[in-house]
Amino acid sequence: MGPALPGGGPVTETKRERDGEGSPMGRHAADDGQERERSQGGDHGGDHGGDGLPGSNGEHVLQELFGTRERATRFYDRQMTDRLTPEMVEFVARQEMVFVGTADARGNCDTSFRAGPPGFVRVLGDDRLIYPEYRGNGVLAGMGNIMENPHISLLFMDFFTDRVGLHVNGAATIITAYDAAARFGLEDEDRTAPGRRTDRWVAVEVEEAYIHCSKHIPLLARQDRRTAQRRRPPGEDHFGVTAAKAAGVTGQDTGRAAVARPPE
């Protein structure tokens, strides 16, 4: 068993490896101590809304309201799966970026961006993948959310070749670099970003995977960052927050802290 993170138990266990101990994670989890069940009547994600369909009650209500239920059901049946297909595995292995969505226990959301060489997000199996966390600004918003709420959403976007995206939703577990190396052979000098040390990894147990169609995805062209004509790289106050606070234009308490602050 690997090291533990502050405020919690070991961070290397996943639901399947706990053999039924503890609380299951993810939107598809059943009662405590049970393995999540595969959906019946298809291999799309589990029933979130209680009416035999994947997704939330909210989306089902809107489908009825806007007359899209038939189209949505067709998408669920034809495009949603609870594991990665071989084509998805190959797609992930070529990707250089991913958008990561998390939320804390109160539902406050955070979306972040991760990038690296092709294949920096590793597929460990058709039901699990893992991505590296590098040294950043020290806020650790995404992983902090995972400590409270393991639900995670990954969006892989190919703007350069396929012009298509892949959604992967599931349950996240934080894994130390030590345990990732010992258990999966994931080393700092492996296929992560050259010159960037991997502090820890986030493993994702796949619960839903489905396509993001190419209809509104722009086709972009790659450029060499060393030779491309561009403006000076933005500094840390590119959006003027520090200057605005110094001038008293914006309050010192922002975001969740401002919302949580009791009225005077």
TrEMBL record:
Highest taxon in the source lineage: Bacteria
Amino acid composition bias (Basic and acidic residues), ranges on this chain: 28-50, 223-239
Region (Disordered): 1-59, 223-264
Signal sequence bounds: none
Segments forming domain Pyridoxamine 5'-phosphate oxidase N-terminal: 84-213
Biased composition (Low complexity): 240-251
InterPro entries referenced in this protein's UniProt entry, alphabetically: Pyridox_Oxase_N, Split_barrel_FMN-bd
Annotated Gly residues bias: 1-10
PANTHER family associated with the record: FAD-BINDING, PUTATIVE (AFU_ORTHOLOGUE AFUA_6G07600)-RELATED
Protein name: Pyridoxamine 5'-phosphate oxidase N-terminal domain-containing protein
Record organism: Sphaerisporangium rufum
Lineage: Bacteria, Bacillati, Actinomycetota, Actinomycetes, Streptosporangiales
